[in-house]
Every structure is written in C-alpha cells, then in structure tokens.
Amino acid sequence: MTYQLNVAANGRVVLPADVRRRMGLSEGGALLVEETPDGLILRTVEQAVAHAQALARKYTADSPNASVEAFLHNRREDSGE
C-alpha cells in the first residue's frame, strides 16, 4: 500500500493509524530510517535486528568460526589465555 505523507514545518511526519497498528507501534515507539538509493526504509527496532541477523547469517552461514563462542575462543588463543 502506498501513502502520501506530508512533512510539517517542524520536520514531523505522521504515519497513518492503520500502518502504526500493523507495525505494532504505539506512542513513543521507535523507528529506524535507512536511506537507500531507492528511497527511505522504515523499520521497527525488532525488524532492524531481524534484518541484521539475516545479513549476518548470509555472510557467516558456511563459516564454522562465525559464532561468538568461536570468536572468543580464537581471541583467547591469540592472546595466550
């Protein structure tokens, strides 16, 4: 669905109530804005975390050393602990 939103003089943009409801946003809810060559992407914090986790999986899926535990183990070995 596409909406036309207006930017107020103070820079505020109001999201339609049905969009806020579908995104689970209430008063004071946080959104992250990502600027891309194609425009802006709005994500809730939860969506942004899920997106970052998906990207991490994409680039580390085939690496046995991609886990936090493996990273810490390697750092300890490198430092002589």
Automatic annotation (TrEMBL):
- Tell me the ranges covered by the SpoVT-AbrB domain, including all copies: 2-47
Could you list this entry's UniProt keywords, alphabetically sorted.
DNA-binding
Q: Which InterPro entries match?
A: SpoVT-AbrB_dom, SpoVT-AbrB_sf
A Pfam family of the record is MazE_antitoxin
Q: Which SUPFAM superfamilies match?
A: AbrB/MazE/MraZ-like
Question: Which interval of the chain is the signal sequence?
Answer: none
Superkingdom of origin:
Bacteria
GO terms for molecular function, please? DNA binding
What is the protein name for this chain? AbrB family transcriptional regulator
- Taxonomic source organism: Roseiarcus fermentans
